[in-house]
Amino acid sequence: MMAESDTLQNTERSVTRPRLRVVTIIAAALLAVMVLIFSLLPYAVEQGGLIWLKQHGVKDARIDNVDLNLFSGAVALEGLKSGDGLNIKQLKFKFDWQPLWHHVVHIRFLELSESNLKLLKENGLWRVEGILSEAGGLPDSEVARSGMDEQSGTNEASDRWLFVVDDLVLNAVDVAVKSDLFELSLPVKSLRFSLSGLKQQEQMVVNSFELGNTVFSGFGYSIQTKGAKLTGKFTFSAWAEDVVASIKSDQISVGLQGLTMNGNKDRLSVNAGDVALDGIAIRGRDHISIESVSLDKIHIRQALKEQGTLMLASLGLSGIDISLDDKAVLSKLAMKKINLKRLQAHDFGEMDQSLSLAAVQVQAFAMPSTGHFQIRTLDMNSVDINHAFNNQGMLQMKQLSAEGINADLKGPVTIASIGLKQLKSDNPGGRHQTIEIADAALSGMSITPGKSLNIVDVLLQKADMSGPAMGQSGSRQAMGGFEHARLKGLAMHAGKPVTFDMLKIDAIQLPSHGKGSLGSVASLQADDAVFDPSGMYRFRQLKVDRMQVYLIRQKNGHLLLPKLSNEAQNNGGTISTTVQKQAGKQRGNRKRQVVIIDHAEVGAGSWIDFRDESVLPAFKTTLKIKRFNLTPLDSSGKRPGKLVLRAQIGKAGILIAQGSINPVAGSRFSTDMHVVLKDGNLSRLSGYVEAEFGRSVKTGQFNLDSDIRINHNRIDAKNKMLIRKLELGDSKQAGKGGKKVSLAGGMSIDMALDMLRNNDGDIELNVPVSGPLDDPNINLGNIINKALLTSLSTGAMTYAALILQPYGSIILAADLARGFIKDAVKPKLTPIGFEERAVNLSPRMTEYIVKIATLMEKKNLRLQVCGFATRIEGEVVMQPVSSDQPGQANARAFVGQPALEDTQLLELAQKRSDAVMAALREHKIAARRLFNCRPQIDESNKEAQPRVELLLD
């Protein structure tokens, strides 16, 4: 049995061994075949690729090496060259086999280095340059858009492949793309792309790339950048219904170097130095945020019109937050800060305007909805706008700031505050003027376009306006200004009155005339104003403080006012007949404007200085306001106003007016006033008397007590006049009204005046005036007094001579009066002497005046004060000055003051008499006892001394 079993075993072994050999041989053969296949596969792939390339028109193609590892799914390709369109130095990638059964190409790693790729698109088909595309291939647009195969009618969704790359690395890869519409040169210096979590709910992508000199041209534009960088990561869900909506990103950064964009055929062109975007975050389709955006050296041509240019040194944005709606349209925008430096814009707008900005900063910009934006703060520095108002205007600002801007472009706009510093506007509206404002502040502004404007408070500091000087080509002069202006509670509503609570302007400078000025106003305030569209302007109160106004009536009789434009200056201040007719038509069609001031007041200390150069000597006086109230002032004529006026005229005159007045132009003008004038200086009026009667007024005072009623163009006035110490003198003027004077019996003016005088030498008259305003009836009435001239007693003159020593003595002088009455002997005091062209009293003469004041006080005397200038003062006085030049020891130069005209000499004489009058008033001598004579020029003696003569009465 054992032998039998051994035999069976041996037999089985003998049978098994051949089978094992067969299996081994087959396995070895299969292995050899597989090894052969694996060994030949790279060669086959290489040869197959070359054959395919040559079949597609590539004449020069080669592949240096192909390395395949099918077990691990690794492929390496080196030295692929296909003409000029494809050149790959090295390509490596690893892939998974299993996903291929599910139409998924899953490449775990792909690296492409030092390669060139040129893509062309012809007839709607993309191909590599030098490689012919297959006939019958579909354009890429059809592949993207069509979901059905038109020939088979099958749904392409079932045959769609998903291409996924986990890690992509590109180094020194140049891509060139060319089509009928555009060309692109894209040199990729480096690219890193990593995708993870493919089988999870959310996938993460980490990427970075760097580009070289990139050029794009097409669609009428050429875009170039010297370099570009991108780094960042984002996540998405490949299995979501809306893949784009699932995208999320954080901390993506983009940088561009040397960006330029040029448009063909005069289109927009842009140049920028560097562009950087940092901290880009994306949340699906509807939200994007950017930490910061910066651009520098920006130059845009044809930015705003065909020839316009825009230049910026730098632009920075931070904290950008963008929201989009379901149609990918911007719905919300927010930025924490906007910084702009050195902006210049040229040739924009209709008038070739230019704009320059040193810096702009915006804090917390927000656009919560379309057409609506909010800004927390806005700052602009050094703003210059040329042609701001017309083709000549210019606007400059050192700084403009605003806070709390809330604007709806189709609705209301609110601004918490606006600040402005150093505003200058040249030629606004073509009027050749310049307006400068040092500082301006506005708060609480609310605007509804076409409906309303409200401003809580406006403050202006240091405003000045200048314009062309009268009669001086090319020169300019001040046209007015103020130190402070404040406007409160301004409200404007469509169809309703414009109102404001208060307007106050301080330190107002009135316009200039030549080298002088019209004056100033310390303060002007208007309260509770209402400007009705119907033409009614109403103020609860209008108050003027410390008004100082200079008015000049020129020799031609016109009141001197500054011309406000070169056009008026060139036309001699005249307006063409056509313009006058047009203006007349406009005035005829315009409603009559009504001004109502419930209470008008001019503060004490205000004055008006008036000079009339149409008469010789010129009339000059000053009206000083002590009190002025008018309640109300109603130009409609419905309510008369109550006027209270108290003022000083000249050096000592007093004007008092009280009563009612209705200041309506035309026949409705009416008054019921009581007017008192005290101690008016008649010698100042000599120019008017000489022009009419050919006689001068040497001295005299005028007093008036009058009740005046005017109604319906008729006057009814009762005037009580007191003329003290009136004396007439000769005049070089012939006069034009003397022939019209008709006195009883052909009596001369001097004789009539002598007969009117009382024992004190004064004239008292009651002169009623009645009749039409344009031709009133003035009845002098009967002569009620005849003057009897009196003289001082011998004892009085002796006392005067003693008290005035040693400064002066009494000189007895007799003058014959014109007519038949002889003037009495009147005592003259020793004159008060002055140096040539001097108007100030010497210490010696000041002591003399003290003695004169004592004499007048003891004896209750009156005194005439007559100022004289000498002809010698008007001549040029030349004084020798030794020369300092070497070799000219004996040479002599002469200098001197310029000559003075007669009007200047008369002013010099008047100032001397004013100085003596002022000194006497300082010693308690009443103005009613002092009489200022008409100033005179001493023609009789060239050796005469400049002086003030004193005549006792």
Shape: rod-shaped
- State Rg: 53 Å
Helix content: 10-25%
Summed over residues and divided by their number, the pLDDT gives a mean of 75
Largest sheet: 38 strands, mixed
Q: What structural class do you assign from the helix and strand content? A: alpha+beta
Helical run tally: 9
Distance between the termini: 193 Å
Strand content: over 45%
Give start-end ranges of low-pLDDT stretches.
Answer: 135-157, 563-583, 738-746, 779-794, 813-825, 887-894
User: Number of DSSP strands?
Assistant: 48
Notable characteristics:
alpha+beta, 38-stranded mixed beta sheet, six-stranded mixed beta sheet, 15% helix, rod-shaped
Summarize the structure.
By secondary structure, this protein is an alpha+beta fold.
Give the SSE map.
Layout: H1 2-55, E1 61-69, E2 74-82, E3 86-95, E4 104-122, E5 125-128, H2 140-145, E6 162-178, E7 182-196, E8 203-211, E9 214-218, E10 221-225, E11 227-236, E12 248-263, E13 267-283, E14 287-301, E15 309-324, E16 330-348, E17 353-369, E18 372-386, E19 394-408, E20 413-426, E21 434-448, E22 452-468, E23 476-493, E24 498-509, E25 512-513, E26 516-517, E27 519-532, E28 536-553, H3 566-570, H4 577-589, E29 594-597, E30 600-602, E31 607-612, E32 619-631, E33 633-634, E34 641-649, E35 653-662, E36 670-681, H5 686-693, E37 696-711, E38 714-729, H6 749-756, E39 763-772, E40 777-778, H7 794-804, E41 810-813, E42 826-833, H8 843-859, E43 863-870, E44 879-882, E45 892-895, H9 902-922, E46 930-932, E47 936-938, E48 947-952
Parallel strand pairs: 4-6, 28-29, 28-30, 28-31, 43-46, 43-47
Antiparallel strand pairs: 1-2, 2-3, 3-4, 4-5, 6-7, 7-8, 7-9, 8-11, 9-10, 10-12, 11-12, 12-13, 13-14, 14-15, 15-16, 16-17, 17-18, 18-19, 19-20, 20-21, 21-22, 22-23, 23-24, 24-27, 25-26, 27-28, 29-33, 30-32, 31-32, 32-34, 34-35, 35-36, 36-37, 37-38, 38-39, 39-40, 41-42, 42-48, 43-48, 44-45
Helix pairs in contact: 7-8
